[in-house]
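Input chain follows. Return structure tokens only.
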Amino acid sequence: MEIDLSNIKVIGFDADDTLWVNETYFRETEEHFAALLEGYETKNKIDQELFKVEMQNLELYGYGIKGFMLSMIESALDLSNKEVSQDTIAEILKLGKHMISRPVELLEGVEETLQQLENKYRLIVLTKGDLLDQERKLERSGLSKYFHHVEVLSDKKENNYKNLLEHLEIDVKEFLMVGNSLKSDVIPILNIGAKAVHVPFHT
């Protein structure tokens, strides 16, 4: 189904896994983390424990690599009954730092799409995660020149979007959101009366 863009003046883009690769790096790090703790539990149990701890910590740490690092350390302590070595903790920190320092890998066709849109629409970034990390990734990506505004949200619920659009003086009827998550980028946007395009993540 085609979306009527005749009234659209502003297009918002999610960042992670919409503009550039992100989820893949988390999955790779989880594999390394499980390998570090294989002496304590099965890979399946390690994966389950890490996911549980991450979900519990979201309210405290929010989204992003730093919270993920802290959750890995907490999971390692829990899985090992606090017997995990200092060397293993150091390796976990190294995993997180490696994620933060990785070069940004743009998804195919992203820059060409932005080039086509920048003269017709006001483009903004609306993403979740750690502010410093997202600003760093945007700078490394070379895409910042295409965007009029960048907003790093603590969450992407209806109220988050409504408050931001009001703050930026954007009419919901003139706004389109583009992202890879139905839960975060599409459904709340449709619920406030704006339009959205779902772009599933694939590398």
